[in-house]
Amino acid sequence: MLGGKSCVYKGSVSLALVILILLMVLILVSEKNPFHTSIFEMQRQFSVSSSVCNFAKGKWVEDRRRPLYSGFECKRWLSAMWACRMMDRTDFSFEHYRWQPEGCSVSGFERSAFLRRMQNKTIAFIGDSLGRQQFQSLMCMASGGEESPEVQDVGWEYGLVKPKGALRPDGWAYRFPTTNTTILYYWSASLSDLVPMNNSDSPPLIAMHLDLPPAFMRTYLHRFDVLILNTGHHWNRGKIEGNHWVMHVNGTAVNNEYFKDIGNAKDFTIQSIVKWLDSQLPLHPRLTAFFRTISPRHFRNGDWNSGGNCNNTVPLTRGSKITADGSMDTTVERALNGSRIKILDITALSELRDEAHISGSKLKPRKPKKVSSNETQIINDCLHWCLPGIPDTWNELLVAQL
Ligand SMILES: *[C@@H]1O[C@H](CO)[C@@H](O)[C@H](O)[C@H]1NC(C)=O
Ligand SMILES: *[C@@H]1O[C@H](CO)[C@@H](O)[C@H](O)[C@H]1NC(C)=O
Ligand SMILES: *[C@@H]1O[C@H](CO)[C@@H](O)[C@H](O)[C@H]1NC(C)=O
Ligand SMILES: *[C@@H]1O[C@H](CO)[C@@H](O)[C@H](O)[C@H]1NC(C)=O
Ligand SMILES: *[C@@H]1O[C@H](CO)[C@@H](O)[C@H](O)[C@H]1NC(C)=O
Ligand SMILES: *[C@@H]1O[C@H](CO)[C@@H](O)[C@H](O)[C@H]1NC(C)=O
Ligand SMILES: *[C@@H]1O[C@H](CO)[C@@H](O)[C@H](O)[C@H]1NC(C)=O
Question: For ligand 1, which residues put their CB under 6 angstroms from it?
């Protein structure tokens, strides 16, 4: 029958078409093909929402377009002790990697697009020195590491001025005038409110209110559009005693067994601040809040004091992929569960990058004539990261989730 013959004919044509399409898809998905990124862009456009994507899962890939700014140039914002390009480190292969989340793409950071998106907005980092690193990184990313005399120091608007005799202010705030974008950092190592105690002890004791967010945060929360919190490395007995901090809960000093375990005190504080911030979010509809998970340390034997080092300079000797669903930072993960605060989970992906710390670098003597070479300061820092470096990736993941 004529009809049947035509059916068979049509069938084989469709089969051929299907095979052809399959082949094309195979070629397009192959990593070697130049259209690969556009496929990923399409995936991004079609993905339902960014929340389906776990940015912490994925892999490090080499990318010669990294770093996003030069470590020689961003002098206005990079601390000398973190600018490894200004030290005597010779291996910079760590600068040429990008984090590729699985199943979702982070569109390349482009500073003018970023600033335009952040028009009239204020981005605030509150946390310890690793938060300060992330702040410096974002300043360098947003300015491209170029001299930007137009960027205004607006610290005074937030009370961030250096008190007489202090080494530095409690934070910094800068504004990009063309887009009216403000980026600031406030130093709060423990994310708890610190209030001098009314006593005659010398040195004076400081009440550390584990259930009260820093006064700075309570005062200025209404001015923030993006807030990124972090804490972690100051939760040890040495630091707490050295700072003369006395733990308080419900307004009174606590000295029970539970809080003697510093890990418990840390967990309690993180849970408290998350609960408080979550309760504030409905009152601050413009605010998007993140809690950044802990940044891993890589002291090989012991810590700072016991000469531990991390002198590996070869990238990705610990592997390049993270496949686990959950965070390595279970304290933050659990505290955020059920809250509206987003997790900025950087722990596992940073754990793979032991070669990107400062350790192994030496500060170049500032005045070579006065300082003999045997006096250059050897840095044994396996906690902080070289900048440009890993905190740039944290910011790319932050921007992707805004
Ligand atoms: C800058 O943005 C703030 C809101 O964050 C707004 O109140 C202020 O009017 C803006 N200033 C200018 C000059 O656009
Ligand atoms: C920024 O703020 C200014 C002044 O309040 C306003 O005129 C402008 O429309 C705002 N722009 C955006 C994108 O919000
Ligand atoms: C501090 O203690 C003194 C004497 O005990 C008292 O007069 C003063 O009011 C106290 N100040 C505060 C702020 O509690
Ligand atoms: C603080 O007060 C709350 C409510 O009264 C109570 O449930 C909690 O046990 C108190 N915590 C401490 C450490 O005193
Ligand atoms: C790195 O540190 C280890 C342990 O301290 C040491 O044995 C090794 O010689 C060091 N390697 C380099 C290249 O400095
Ligand atoms: C989050 O909380 C829910 C309900 O309490 C629980 O079933 C789930 O296991 C928790 N998830 C994590 C990652 O802790
Ligand atoms: C540094 O070198 C000077 C002169 O060469 C020497 O006197 C001094 O003891 C050295 N210092 C150290 C810490 O080795």
Answer: 120, 122, 180
Measure the CA–CA gap between 227 and 125, rounded to whole angstroms.
6
Global pTM exceeds 0.85 = no
Q: What is the CATH number of domain 58-400?
A: 3.40.50.1110
Q: Delimit the domains of the chain by residue range.
A: 58-400
Ligand 1 atom nearest residue 120's Cα: 2
Distance of alpha carbon 225 from alpha carbon 104, whole angstroms: 24
String of DSSP letters for 246-289: EEEETTEE--SHHHHSHHHHHHHHHHHHHHHHHHHGGG-TT-EE
Q: How many whole angstroms from 300 Cα to the centroid of ligand 5?
A: 10
pLDDT, tens digit, for every residue of 56-104? 999 999 999 999 999 999 999 999 989 999 988 889 999 999 999 998 8
334 in ligand 6 pocket by Cβ < 6 Å? yes
Q: Please report which ligand is nearest the Cα atom of 154.
A: 1
Q: Which atom of ligand 6 is nearest to the CA of 334?
A: 14
Q: What is the dihedral of CA 389, 392, 397, 398, to 10 degrees?
A: 140
Given the DSSP bridges, would you call strands 122-127 and 181-187 parallel, antiparallel or unpaired? parallel
Q: Which atom of ligand 4 is nearest to the CA of 252?
A: 14
- pLDDT at 56 (0 to 100): 96
For the chain, the distance separating the N- and C-terminal CA atoms, rounded to the nearest angstrom, is: 63
Nearest CA to ligand 6 atom 6: 337
